[in-house]
Amino acid sequence: MQTKHWKRRASVSLSTLAGLAMTATFAAGAANAQSSASATVTAQRNALAQLMLEENRPGAACIILKRAGGAATADANSLYLLARCSDASGNTQEAIAYYRQLIALLPNATRPRAELAALYVKAGQPGLAGPLFADAARVGPGDEASPIMQNLAERLGANDPAALIAGTASKPWAIELFAGLIHDSNINGGPTSDIVPAVVGTTPIQFRLVPEAMPKSSWGANTSLNGSYAHRLSPRFSLLFQGGVSRTDYFEDANFTNDSLTLATALIYRNQQHGVSASLQPSIRYIRQDSRLQEANTGVVGRVSKAVIHKVNLTFSTGYFDRRVQVDRRRDAHGLHAGLGVNTQLIPDWNLGAEYVLQREHANEDVFSRRTNGPSVYAVWKARHDLEFIANYRYTNVTYDKAMAFFPDVRDDRQQTVGLTALWDVSRWAGRNLVVRAQYMHARNRSNVAFNDNQRDIFMMGVQTRF
């Protein structure tokens, strides 16, 4: 009976916040004989912590739960969430302690044993994991234990991306190195307001977010290295190999330090006589935060461009992508995108362009599936031989397929991004191909779900060299 009770409770906790609230309320009333009001508070607290986990803010989730008692709690869902947020925050030993307390509370439960075993393997203690896996298989029914074992490799995380190996410098090569300072006004993606209206059942409520969930600003250091190599196959066909690594270290909060690796190969066709060019480019990108893999993205993009009149090109692009979100597999998604753009250099010293993009994304859970569409424009102005300005603007409408728990309306976002870049060539004073780069980006996401309504300002300045 206890096994079935935990199975129902755990599966609901991992699915929706609404289910979590109802289960937590039931558990508090049945196990602890608490009042209805107290059970509702526990359910709302757990729901808010679960929401923080879904938004990849495990630190805030742990703070919410610990302020309400932490390890002293006898609520199974609270302990389970504490174990998850501790693990996601990198506090493996703390997560192990919570799982052990949960197993003592529910001795016949399968899931906490299997997940604790996974933590032991992750911590390099496989000897402690074996007995727990055996207990999980013995205690729980086969239909519950089997999916846990199948997902074990995913819980342990994928390997880090291989290091990018640069070749020897030669004429087909282009290598660019940048190093500079960055200031980010919202490194954690915090909302603009600490009050989040929601609905539990039919009752309107308001979540008040803890200070740790609000926007955090920080200075940091950014470095990037990009390289490319072109290999000509024939007068019209060539191959282009590209790779890049980037890293941002934040001074105020190292937990948000991130890095990425991107690799791509393109088959390019050019017919100058007819003004036609085309390319087919597969790519892969890894993104990490705090030395933990966050996402692995793969995809392929096809592009065809045609000169319609002198110095005016039309471009059509389409592609497929697959995204694996290591920290939350429910967000794993795949989809298609297509775009139509125009580019012109009719005005001397100016390069102007615009594009409209449509994208359809299917996630493992419908609450994360979405449709996006919107235009973007850009302008490049060569003010002097040593000074260049770049401006761009993008507007995106994002509509999700299914409403989130506690929020009755389907999430609908309006995103606006403005970017400005200045490139000043100081080679005549400081050396060949040395450029000072200054960049500013403003991003505003207006959402009907207050938790996702946010804005961000990023300023970056440094030097880059190309050879």
UniProtKB/TrEMBL annotation:
Q: What is this protein called?
A: Surface lipoprotein assembly modifier C-terminal domain-containing protein
Superkingdom of origin organism: Bacteria
Source organism of the structure: Pollutimonas thiosulfatoxidans
- What residue stretches are annotated with the Surface lipoprotein assembly modifier C-terminal domain? 173-464
Listed InterPro entries: Slam_C (IPR007655), TPR-like_helical_dom_sf (IPR011990), TPR_rpt (IPR019734)
Which Pfam families does the UniProt entry name for this protein? Answer: SlipAM
Q: Recite the UniProt keywords alphabetically.
A: Signal, TPR repeat
> What is the residue range of the signal peptide feature?
1-27
Q: Where are the TPR repeats?
A: 76-109
What sections of the protein cross the membrane?
none
